Amino acid sequence: MNENPSTHSTGSGQGNFWLGFFIGGFIGAVIIVLLGSKEGKKFASKLLDEGELWEENLEEKIKKLAEKGEELLAEAQEVKEKAVEKIEEKKEVMGEVIVEKMDQVLTNIESAQAKGMELTQEVHHRYFKKDGKPLIS
């Protein structure tokens, strides 16, 4: 249970060293096989060809996506323009409807005012009398 920290860290450091040594050796062996033998060179060439093919496919897909994005942007602009047109049309129609309604309301107000004046005069003549004669204002 009583561990010495110095022996523990040394053991861990040696483990990392051997792991790094093994990985480095493995990578070195792969490079030697790929570059040092005919089969390795063929395999490396095939890997390069595959990589170039993937790169071309990726470039094609990016190009198609960019074109599709431009198309969608153009469609969105058209939809926006149509919506603005319709809003302007509706605004004009609504403006005309509102003007008509306001004219009707003003006409009704004028009629109500005229009736109010008539009623006021009638009340004035009927109820505001002095010695049986209507008061003149």
TrEMBL record:
Keywords: Coiled coil, Membrane, Transmembrane, Transmembrane helix. The chain crosses the membrane at residues 17-36. Residues 55-122 form a coiled coil. This is Gas vesicle protein.
